[in-house]
Amino acid sequence: MRNRSWQWLRLCLIAALLLAAVPATVLAQDAGSAGAAEGEVVAEGFNGPMGVLVDNAGDIWVVDSGTGGDEVIDDYTFQGTAVTATLGMTSRVVRISGIDGTQTEVATLPSINTGMEAEGGSRLAQLRGITYVTAPGWHPGFAPSTAEEPLPLTGVRSPPA
User: Fold this and answer.
1) How many other C-beta atoms lie within 10 A of the C-beta of residue 120?
2) Helix locations, the chain, DSSP H
3) H helices, E strands: number in the chain
4) Spatial separation of the C-alpha atoms in residues 9 and 15, rounded to whole Å
5) What are phi and psi of 118, to 5 degrees?
6) Cα–Cα distance list, 36 to 17, 18, 43, 95 (Å)
7) What is the pTM assigned to this prediction?
């Protein structure tokens, strides 16, 4: 029951982020109102931007979910259906300069693609000038279901104390 609640919460958060990512120009075209705000493309080339943050310097940080990778692993869906997934370091954190728009890849993270979706890094936060990124939470018994150890660079759910 708890897993299903987390799945719904996760889906709601993803839907909210996707709606927030719709450019203002698309919304303005649909509204057809005079004087609507015009948008400007500031970055391109993302597969699945999941988190966006603007820092105090005006730089934009984006975490992209990635596309999986070249390593093939056997996995299972939440419903227990067997799937073949790909794993690789294709999730990335990109900083876009607020001054000149240059894109700098700051870090890469693991990404897994089950054929239905790719999942990798997802959220960004800054605290005292340090940028934090949430990594995927693949742990033993989940993805890959045969793993004895967590996948490298992924979050691990700790058992209750």
Assistant:
1) 30
2) 2-21, 24-31
3) 2, 8
4) 10
5) -110, 140
6) 22, 21, 22, 28
7) 0.64
Over range 96-103, report the average pLDDT.
92
Cα dihedral 155, 16, 84, 140 in deg (nearest 10): 20
pLDDT in tens, 68-84: 899 998 777 667 788 88
Q: Element (H or E) spanning 133, and its range? A: strand 130-133
Cα–Cα–Cα angle for 85, 106, 42, rounded to 5 degrees: 95
CB environment 64-94: b (16+ within 10 A), e (fewer): bbbbbbeeebebbeeeeeeeebbbbbbbbbb
Q: 130-133 and 124-127: which strand pairing?
A: antiparallel
Return the closest-CA partner of residue 50 out of 114, 117, 101: 117
DSSP-derived 3-state class of residue 4: helix
CA pseudo-torsion sign 32, 36, 41, 46: negative
Taking residue 107's Cβ as centre, other Cβ atoms within 10 Å add up to 16
The CB density around residue 44, as the number of other CB atoms within 10 Å, is 6
